[in-house]
Design goal:
This is Sulfurtransferase-like selenium metabolism protein YedF. The protein has 193 residues and is of the alpha/beta class. The protein is built from six helices and nine strands.
Length: 193
């Protein structure tokens, strides 16, 4: 049985590390060392949603989870929608708390998209969300990787002009409000971040 130590890892790295390890050796038992709290809960939920069995043992520092069984498709919702999945990102940060935390959450959210089995078909950036697609953003390379995987990435032209960033666009392409509205109205599902 392989053991991986995910203690002291920032979110979402414990789940991402477990996901990769399970994919490398499907059906083999995996022991994961984790901090208590959110890391333990997130990894347990991830495994359970895939039909895996999780056995927990308390440690002096943290917890050891042993994950066994054959993974199935995620039970987190995987329903099939008619039409594309469109993601609308309307800010360069996530949530209403402190700005620094909001920016960190948004960065981690976008990075985590690369680890998902199902990607959105199109990601639309509006308002200050366009700052994520331009020079100086921490997620430009991630967005370029998404584009290379077939995800359409578009930034609102009016928004780029407002922030004087049109000539600094590095990921995806410029679009207009007609395309944004049409994309949202014809989508099978819309995810607003």
């Amino acid at each position: 049985m392989k053991t991986i130590d995910c203690r002291n890892m920032a979110c979402p790295l414990p789940v991402v590390t477990v996901k990769r390890s399970l994919e490398e050796a499907p059906g083999e038992a995996l022991q994961v060392l984790l901090d208590n709290g959110a890391p333990r809960e997130n990894v347990t939920r991830y495994a359970a949603n895939r039909g895996l069995v999780v056995t927990e043992t308390a440690l002096e520092e943290g917890v050891a989870l042993v994950i066994t069984g054959e993974a199935t498709a995620s039970r987190d919702g995987g329903g099939t929608a008619i039409g594309p999945t469109v993601m609308l990102i309307a800010s360069d940060r996530m949530g209403d708390g402190p700005e620094e935390l909001g920016r960190l959450l948004m960065k981690n959210f976008i990075i985590t998209l690369l680890e998902l089995d199902r990607l959105p078909d199109r990601v639309l950036f509006v308002n200050s969300g366009v700052l994520l697609t331009t020079d100086g953003s921490d997620v430009v390379e991630v967005l370029e990787t998404l584009v290379n995987r077939g995800v359409e990435v578009f930034s609102c032209g009016i928004c780029l002009d407002y922030f004087n960033r049109r000539n600094k666009l590095l990921a995806g392409a410029v679009t207009n409000m007609f395309t944004i509205a049409e994309s949202l109205l014809t989508a099978g599902s819309v995810v607003r971040v």
